[in-house]
């Protein structure tokens, strides 16, 4: 492998590699740019052509072409080597001694599994994919396949190629049953999921065929493994990244068919989430490729909420966000299949800035001006705190003020006074403001202890006092959400805390005290972060009274946090 590395370095300079991701400008003998790894206003990222290295004086990242590609693509060294070797035209060869680690074995299993499933693509599955609008080229390029109804076909195939049971389980290809291991995927069209280097790391399977169980989930994804982290992987990213940089925007869709049909229409810059919501890691990955994102999720209630959450995540990472307005109740795949490529191109072309989109969505459903105002205040204003550019934020404030027929200063003040959480975390087009919170594990554990102790004849803690302290530590809204935890989940949590805290009364009391302190510290820290954002906006608007009020709140919270100590 060392020979391959040296050949790649001889053929590709640091400028060749970095300039394909970042716009560089001359700075004496070196080149500089704004760092692609952290947000900054003044360039502190320098590239030295003479040494073949880069270094950021802001976040202290540095290295050569391989470490740069590792960091910017979010892959390991061998993934970076694969990308750069292909670009340099250098054949990639490994010696047997170099092929021994666990990750390499998992990559080999996933590649073998992809070949197996592709070879089993039935005539019926192939015809179904073509009827959905996929061409032969797309079916082949994305390596679509089929898992039949056999309980162990994939296992037998892979074990015949000397992969062990443990390796199959670690790769997520198999699952353990009463009679040993069995195939995880059965009666499904298989969509391989690749990392940034194009290596298969997971699968998503869609039910298909007469033998598919009627109660089986429509889509089944691989479990998280050493290779596959859902929060870091975007389906189709390996094939879309060059188009994202070329066209300077990405299109985010929800499902595999949405992505494949979008690629069919010529939008090779389309990516999809893989069985999870859009995360900060996803947004950071996109930000390294482009500054612009078009969100095109399903046009039902759940899809619009998901678009709102994805937009807020993307805005926080500095992306300029637009939302595609699909016909109500449709998704991109339906849109393309039903109305054709030109209709989809028009939808993407006519996508609206995120603020405009949600203002339109609320106004369309609001029954009167007062309800429109209240919904905008609770559901749209939170976006302003997520926008990093002051100029862009001011532009949005002006638009909101115009739609509400109020002054910009009123919008700024209302935004600065927003609570820490808002309805936009789960945006609802029915303007009801219903909010479902993602509950922290620590809060769930604390509440499960309360439920457990209330159920025993001689509790080890004062339940009334503990309940009051817990509500104070997490806040009334979160406490109400804790009380709404589904019964089956609450039973599982209760069982877990009983097993964990059953030792002694003194130990439980100590654990409860630590939990409450940690929760209260987290709450105060979040409140302090929110106040700091409000303070910056109040100072921008020149509101001296609000500035002084927020400064006092900031000092009080800082004191409270210090008194709680360093709870982890």
Automatic annotation (TrEMBL):
Keywords: DNA replication, DNA-binding, DNA-directed RNA polymerase, Magnesium, Metal-binding, Nucleotidyltransferase, Primosome, Transcription, Transferase, Zinc, Zinc-finger. InterPro entries: DNA_primase_core_N_sf, DNA_primase_DnaB-bd, DNA_primase_DnaG, DNA_primase_Znf_CHC2, DnaG_bac, DNAG_N, DnaG_primase, TOPRIM_DnaG_bac. A zinc finger (CHC2-type) spans 35-59. One of its GO terms (biological process) is DNA replication, synthesis of primer. Its cofactor is Zn(2+). It catalyses: ssDNA + n NTP = ssDNA/pppN(pN)n-1 hybrid + (n-1) diphosphate. Residues 248-331 form the Toprim domain. Binds 1 zinc ion per monomer. GO terms for molecular function: DNA binding; DNA-directed RNA polymerase activity; zinc ion binding. SUPFAM superfamilies: DNA primase core (SSF56731), Zinc beta-ribbon (SSF57783). Its EC number is 2.7.7.101. SMART domains: TOPRIM (SM00493), ZnF_CHCC (SM00400). One of its GO terms (cellular component) is DNA-directed RNA polymerase complex. The keyword Zinc-finger applies. RNA polymerase that catalyzes the synthesis of short RNA molecules used as primers for DNA polymerase during DNA replication. Belongs to the DnaG primase family. Monomer. Interacts with DnaB. Contains an N-terminal zinc-binding domain, a central core domain that contains the primase activity, and a C-terminal DnaB-binding domain. This is DNA primase. It comes from Candidatus Kaiserbacteria bacterium RIFCSPLOWO2_01_FULL_50_24. The lineage of its organism: Bacteria, Candidatus Kaiseribacteriota.
């Amino acid at each position: 492998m060392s020979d391959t590395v040296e050949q790649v370095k001889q053929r590709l300079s640091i400028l060749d590699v970095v300039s394909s991701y970042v716009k560089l400008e001359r700075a004496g003998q070196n080149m500089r740019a704004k760092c692609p790894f952290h947000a900054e206003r003044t360039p502190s990222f320098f590239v030295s052509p003479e040494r073949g290295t880069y270094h950021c004086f802001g976040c202290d990242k540095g290295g050569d072409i391989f470490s740069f590609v590792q960091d910017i693509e979010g892959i390991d060294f061998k993934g970076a080597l694969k990308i750069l070797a292909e670009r340099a035209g250098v054949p990639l060869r490994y010696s047997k001694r170099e092929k021994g680690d666990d990750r390499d074995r998992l990559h080999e299993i996933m590649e073998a599994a992809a070949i197996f499933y592709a070879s089993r693509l039935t005539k019926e599955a192939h015809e179904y994919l073509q009827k959905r609008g996929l061409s032969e080229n797309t079916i082949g390029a994305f390596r679509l396949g089929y898992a039949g109804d056999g309980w162990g076909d994939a296992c037998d195939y892979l074990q015949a190629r000397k992969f062990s049971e443990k390796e199959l389980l670690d790769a997520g290809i198999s699952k353990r049953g009463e009679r040993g291991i069995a195939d995880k995927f059965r009666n499904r069209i298989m969509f391989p999921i690749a990392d940034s280097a194009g290596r298969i790391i997971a699968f998503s399977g869609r039910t298909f065929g007469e033998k598919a169980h009627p109660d089986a989930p429509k889509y089944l994804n691989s479990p998280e493994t050493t290779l596959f982290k859902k929060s870091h992987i975007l389906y189709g990213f390996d094939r879309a990244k060059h188009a994202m940089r070329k066209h300077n925007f990405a299109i985010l869709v929800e499902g595999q068919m949405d992505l494949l049909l979008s690629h069919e229409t010529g939008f090779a810059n389309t990516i999809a989430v893989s069985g999870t919501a859009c995360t900060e890691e996803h947004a950071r990955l996109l930000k390294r490729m482009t500054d612009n994102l078009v969100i095109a999720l399903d046009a039902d209630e759940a899809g619009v909420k998901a678009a709102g959450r994805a937009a807020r995540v993307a805005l926080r990472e500095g992306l300029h966000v637009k939302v595609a307005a699909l016909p109500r109740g449709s998704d991109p795949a339906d849109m393309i299949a039903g109305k054709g490529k030109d209709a989809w191109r028009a939808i993407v072309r006519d996508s609206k800035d995120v603020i405009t989109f949600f203002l339109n969505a609320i106004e369309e459903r609001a029954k009167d001006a007062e309800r429109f105002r209240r919904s905008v205040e609770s559901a749209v204003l939170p976006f302003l705190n997520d926008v990093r550019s002051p100029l862009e934020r001011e532009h949005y404030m002006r638009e909101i003020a115009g739609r509400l027929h109020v002054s910009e200063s009123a919008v700024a003040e209302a935004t600065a006074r927003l609570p820490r959480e808002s309805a936009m975390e789960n945006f609802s087009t029915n303007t009801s403001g219903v909010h479902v919170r993602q509950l922290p594990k620590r809060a769930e554990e604390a509440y499960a202890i309360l439920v457990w102790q209330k159920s025993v004849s001689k509790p080890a803690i004062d339940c009334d006092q503990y309940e009051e302290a817990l509500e104070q530590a997490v806040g009334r809204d979160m406490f109400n959400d804790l009380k709404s935890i589904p019964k089956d989940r609450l039973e599982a949590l209760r069982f877990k805390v009983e097993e964990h805290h059953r030792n002694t009364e003194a130990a439980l009391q100590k654990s409860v005290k630590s939990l409450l302190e940690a929760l209260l510290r987290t709450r105060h820290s979040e409140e302090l972060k929110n106040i700091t954002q409000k303070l910056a906006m109040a100072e921008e608007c020149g509101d001296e009274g609000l500035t002084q009020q927020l400064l006092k709140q900031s000092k009080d919270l800082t004191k409270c946090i210090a008194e709680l100590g360093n709870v982890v």
